[in-house]
Design brief:
274 residues; mainly beta; four-stranded antiparallel sheet; 2 helices; 47% strand; globular
Length: 274
């Protein structure tokens, strides 16, 4: 076979492969569009039925026309009818009378924003986020809200990731800024590591909260105090805490195989007895 013949055969194969890949991509996009235009298959109810009742608020991730929309279900029946709002969020936290909604505004220049919503799910204020939305959490009475964004890397598993976690009063009041600027006390000693990252805020009241601090390859459960602007370690190997409704316990996840595979288990700490 001559060089010219081999070249022609190679070009034919390349064109065929490229054409097949292109057709596959087009078909996948069409299938995706069809799914996104399909109404949700879950049972639905009106939002006002659940608005003032005990409820669970979350981001709908069904591959349908309501993907990314904020939805609600009854706390008494989580698998029951789902009520959809007209709001789309990357992350959401709600309380009686409002919600915190973190969004990615894609365009020529992609922007990241934190929107404050009122009881009718209407935007009442917004502010820029320093990076990709990671999480948001509000205090039980809706007076404080925390936001976390990735300012480098895209997840907590990324090498060299960095977060910015901020606490503010709802309604544009006091701003405590980035929690990395708080005094950090680990094992009873004030430290000032350059590699610290803070995330996972969960509020006890309007002064005290718990959070995760990562530094030196180790994670800590810390108790935060807004008045003293301090973060004080409580225990190690703990991430993403959540305070119980009666404020007597804090749950968090633990990597029980740290350094090898990632194996998460849940742990609960009794705050009175330790």
């Amino acid at each position: 076979m001559s060089t010219l013949t081999r070249a022609a055969a190679f070009i034919t194969v390349v064109v065929a492969v490229a054409g097949g890949a292109g057709a596959y991509a087009v078909q996948q996009r069409q299938d995706f569009q069809e799914r996104r235009e399909t109404p949700p298959s879950v049972a639905q109810t009106a939002a006002n039925i659940l608005q003032d009742a005990p409820r669970i608020v979350f981001r709908h991730t069904g591959l349908d026309s309501s993907y990314g929309m904020v939805a609600m279900v009854s706390l008494a029946e989580p698998s029951g009818s789902r009520a959809f709002t007209n709001v789309s969020c990357d992350r959401v936290a709600a309380w009686n009378g409002g919600a915190s909604c973190l969004v990615t505004e894609r365009g020529v220049v992609t922007r990241f924003e934190a929107h404050q919503l009122d009881a009718a799910w209407q935007e009442s204020s917004s502010r820029p986020l320093p990076g990709i939305p990671s999480r948001t959490r509000a205090s039980a009475d809706g007076t404080l809200v925390a936001t976390t964004a990735f300012v480098s890397g895209h997840s907590y598993m990324s090498t060299g990731f960095s977060t910015a976690t901020e606490v503010r009063e709802v309604g544009g009041g006091r701003d405590w800024g980035n929690l990395e600027d708080f005094a950090l006390v680990l094992g009873g000693h004030r430290v000032d590591p350059a590699d610290r990252n803070v995330w996972g805020v969960t509020f006890v009241d309007d002064v005290t909260f718990y959070a995760t601090v990562d530094t030196g390859g180790k994670t800590y459960l810390v108790a935060g105090n807004l008045e003293s602007r301090t973060l004080t370690s409580v225990t190690t190997t703990a991430e993403c805490p959540a305070v119980s409704p009666d404020r007597s316990r804090v749950a968090f996840k633990v990597d029980v195989d740290r350094g090898r595979a990632i194996v998460w288990q849940l742990a609960v700490l009794d705050l009175a007895s330790g």
